[in-house]
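job 3f2a | input accepted
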Amino acid sequence: MKLTVIGYWGGYPKKNAASSGYLLEHEGFQLLIDCGSGVLSKLQNIIQPEELDAVILSHYHPDHIADIGVLQHARLIQGFLGNTLPNLPVYGHSFDEPEFSKLTYKTITKGMAYNPDTILSAGPFKIAFLKTNHPVSCYAMRIEAGGKTLVYTGDSSFKEEFVEFSDNADVLLCECNFYGNQNGQSAGHMNSLEAGKLAEKAKVKQLILTHLPHYGNLDELVSEASGEFSGTIKLAEEFLSISL
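job 3f2a | predicted structure (244 res):
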């Protein structure tokens, strides 16, 4: 598996950047995880919108889905230009019917409801889900392919169930919207100490901090997390690429 960070800001994108979006590739299959504001623009530095094989969404907050509409229109325009494209599956939960219904657009994209209690097969990927602690329904993902495992927390405050869910993952892509001296529980977000604690308890090989705050010295997040986790820690950054 190859993971490429497209966007990593929480809430909204910084200037010339993007909020949540991650490209996961394996055996030629290209899966976009979340599609926040600015993601489609940044994605085109790596692949074109018509090259995607599937999209999967953790939840329906705008910083995770804002570019779904423009992705749909990008593929629509390619059709007008004579490129015949398959109906793109966009996986999301169905617990917010008005938002889920927007995932289907003509014959361009098709909303596909995942069942959080079962394993989803998408191309070569096997995806398990865990409901997170967030103000709206949101699901973390444990994605396996080729003997490797990526865990993406989505948006969530810390919960003990994450430890078993993330057990021995090769990469933990963990939200970190708060610094260690802040409590993000009521907002449904983790801080740096909690991200490090989770990585250590789950014995993951590498921790990537994402969904980052717009203020402060971001390097402090790594420093704080390293007090809890002895393994490799990186800040998400644009086009950071990791081969699992």
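job 3f2a | The domain at 2-243 is CATH 3.60.15.10 (Metallo-beta-lactamase; Chain A).
job 3f2a | closed
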